Amino acid sequence: MAYDGVTLYHLIEEFKTLLIGGRIRKIYQPEIDEIRLLVNLGNQKHHVLLSANASNPRAYMTEKIKENPSAPPSFCMVLRKYILNGTIVDITQHETDRVMEISISSKNDFNETVVRKLLVEIMGRNSNIILVDESMKILDSMKKVGSTSSRYRQILPGRDYIYPPENNRHGFFNIETEKFNALLANYGEATVEKFFIQAFLGISPNIGKEVAFRSGIDPNYRVADLSKKQKQFLWEGFIQVITEIEQQAEPVIIYLGRKIVDFSTVDLHYLRTDHRSESYPSISEMLEAYYFKRDKALRFKTRSANLRQQLDILVKKNIKKLDNLHQDMDASHKSEKFKLYGDLITANIYAIEKGQEIATLINYYDPDCQTIDIPLKVNRTPAQNAQHYYKKYNKSKIALKHLVGYILETEEKVYYLESLVNSLDQSTELAELDEIRHEFLHSEFNKKALSKEDKKKQTPSKPLHFISSEGFHIFVGKNNYQNDLISTKMGKSEDCWLHVKDTPGSHVLIVAGGRFITEKTLLEAGNLAAWYSKSRGSSNVPVDYLEFKYLKKPNKAKPGMVIFTNQNTMYVTPTLDGVEAMEAIIQSI
């Protein structure tokens, strides 16, 4: 979700309570596009994060402190010069737009009290943090904008500050019925959802959809096609939502299943059916949780990109090698004809003369005794031609023996590499990524020398932990180290172990706990095994299950590799609903 004017309105209300009257004691710039203010108010200390990041611009109070650079950037030094030890006297929002103004009272060079403003523009790639003096002249900004980038609005020291263009949009508070209807008339070609975005400052698509939902109108319906009654319903839905915005904030993070998809400070009725929400006591706590999870996912994707690329290349390389070996195997299986040629030439050696290109001979091994044409080398005697074919036959037989071993070895490599790829697909934590990288670096596929850091033993991460509908604890490994933990240390003889048949995937363990494991729990665990495997998108996936006592890890086996006996097989079609229906324990063993 875009950090819209509604979220900013609620955040400013929260800031007013906690920050007005507070003194700015410290200013840091840990990132090139991020400022941190330490504000003291009485006995309370608040860390205020202000970010102009192009992807995630935001503002809120934070508990997570980043390491600061050894030398502060120039913008940080300017802020320290003008507002350090200043007192926050007011925090406002420009109209209902995504511009926050923090008014700070401090002393100038003549020891006179002046009020400067720190302006935080939360506007996607155009986000900025700007310091202006009492006459709204720019003292400095995080991002400089010259005339080559914008003719309308330059952001440079010494220039007059100009607010971002409003494009004839209006604040969403204090709108009268007549004004609302006039705006509807002006935006007749827009959809209902787009109307609210284009006509009002700070309204995001979510709010547009919510107003339409409460009005009983399709958000994709064209404004010009609305009846008079529908326009009245739309007005009433709009007033209802705006009234709720004014009255209180309801900070929630919204999930689709277990996937975080959005945040909101308004109760979004239109998402209630398919989504669930997690409430937070404050706007800042909600925003910090949301951006922390989002940043973590982004960092995981960025840090795993190189390893994923290496694995993809190795998988493709070994699959191609496997295809070539199978082609060689097919060619070797055809080697029996060479022996046949040798036998027939030997049987007819006195009927063949040197210099013949082809010998047409009766095939005594054919029930119909049909003739067969055998190519000959003209510079060789019949005996030499027979010997030539025998050598080709023997060579193919020897190659066939070696090919079987090469194919098995390459199949094992492909399986192992695909298990690492599957581990990357299942993992979400940086600690899990470090384990996968550590495993790869210590495998036969890494040709680079290990650094001291690489040689360090990894602190094991935790497997997924679920509780079945009947109260059984079920553990699911997300990488090979977790799989080894589940398959060598966590189970007891009477527990049940599961794994997708002949396909890379997670090791799954049902802890019996002295109880009989029912068919229902077995099917739930089978769904987990299939979902957390390469066969996630398939139907009727075969899943092996067995008592833990029949499971064994051979000496010197690769991580995640085990052997087992006495297994049974069930067939499941993995579904996300089946996974999400089970209670998940965040902290595992």
UniProtKB/TrEMBL annotation:
Keyword Nucleotide-binding attached: no
Keyword Plastid applies: no
Domain NFACT RNA-binding residue range list: 462-564
InterPro entries tied to this protein: NFACT_RNA-bd, Ribosomal_uS13-like_H2TH, RQC_Subunit_NEMF, RqcH_bacterial
Keyword list, A-Z: Protein biosynthesis, RNA-binding, rRNA-binding, tRNA-binding
One Pfam family recorded for the sequence: NFACT_N
Superkingdom of origin organism: Bacteria
Subunit comment: Associates with stalled 50S ribosomal subunits. Binds to RqcP.
Function in brief: Key component of the ribosome quality control system (RQC), a ribosome-associated complex that mediates the extraction of incompletely synthesized nascent chains from stalled ribosomes and their subsequent degradation. RqcH recruits Ala-charged tRNA, and with RqcP directs the elongation of stalled nascent chains on 50S ribosomal subunits, leading to non-templated C-terminal alanine extensions (Ala tail). The Ala tail promotes nascent chain degradation. May add between 1 and at least 8 Ala residues. Binds to stalled 50S ribosomal subunits.
Family classification: Belongs to the NEMF family.
Protein name: Rqc2 homolog RqcH
Organism encoding this protein: Acetobacterium malicum
Protein encoded by which gene: rqcH
